[in-house]
Amino acid sequence: MSASTTRPRRAVKARKVPARGNRWLMPALIAGALGVVALFIGIQTFGGSDSKIPARVATGEGRVLGDANAPVTVIEYADFQCPVCKRAESSIISKMEEEYVTSGKVKIEFRMFPFIGQESFDAAQAAEAAREQGKFWEYHSALFNAQGRENGGAYTYDKLVELAREVGLDVAKFEATLSANTYLEAIQKEADEARDAGVTSTPTFFVNGTKIVGAQPYGTFQEAIDAELAKVNDPQ
Fold this sequence. Notes:
The protein is an alpha+beta fold. The protein is built from nine helices and five strands. The chain has a five-stranded mixed sheet.
């Protein structure tokens, strides 16, 4: 009985402060980057976002998938509301896991670039709350699989809590972290640093520093990774 009375109060709190994060975004990001990403989404998304992300075949720590000492690092900047980011999970990340990550050649690092709206910040904070409990990648997949219309209610407070329950998190601890907005400032800082690095759309990848924008054909990533591996095998 008490849970039903406290949850709405937490939900309001968790929704209000992420909106402040949106006000921190520079007008250039809203007017420029949002338009650029909308273009990418419009161009690249034809099959919708109904498909489910394949089960993970690699393991990792925190937001890193694979061996921390892998010679090639693939950094992905994404927004959980971005349908192209979800598509990239199947068309790029899953294939990369099987071909390069499980063999120890590549590690994948996920970074937050929430820009689409308030639910982007809510989902990013929820993912960090899951990382706190060692289940970032499980929650990451659950978020993408629950993706709906942008800012259409797919990532309400109650739904984020339900996903936490589904992946086996300590729900009370998860709610405490989420309602306190523990990671909001760090997420905003990460997004600011991404813009400083030239990120203006999602998904954006860096393969040992080589920038690849959008859900490009998988061969584009193979070429970039193989080129970096060749440098390791033959540094001259």
